[in-house]
Amino acid sequence: MGSLKAIDYPPVWLAAFLGASWALGRILPLPGLPVTGLILAGCGVALMVAALVQMMLARTTFVPRKEPRTLVSRGVFAMSRNPIYLGDALILAGLSLYWGALLALPLVAVFVAIINRRFIRGEEAVLRQSFGAEFDAYCGRTRRWL
């Protein structure tokens, strides 16, 4: 089990879900929406990059299960408490559309549920412990996803 924990990170989950989506698109292809899909996936990448840059500028970690130094609540973090995970979901939805894997779109909801359970709950507990009332106020004005 210890070796599995070493790979239990959101990008690994995203890669697995992307693989499943791609496979569904090959096995049961439907007419896709390639332009819409690429725009959605591109927005997801842009959102992730913006969030990563903000976290790096704030000199805090973006690695799950690491101790944060700073509560980042401005920029893209004012729109969503989890812009990186939101970006992941947009990439999954967008590439599913691009690949014609419309039957894979429900996987986006499954991905979000797994990320909520495996990562966000724990991260929010650490943020609440580290930043207390400041984090609670942030939660009051910014939704978890959108």
From TrEMBL:
It holds the Pfam family PEMT. It is found in: Endomembrane system. It is a multi-pass membrane protein. It comes from the Bacteria. Its main location: membrane. Keywords: Membrane, Transmembrane, Transmembrane helix. The chain crosses the membrane at residues 12-28, 35-57, 89-115. The keyword Membrane applies. This is Isoprenylcysteine carboxylmethyltransferase family protein. It comes from Albidovulum sediminis. The lineage of its organism: Bacteria, Pseudomonadati, Pseudomonadota, Alphaproteobacteria, Rhodobacterales.
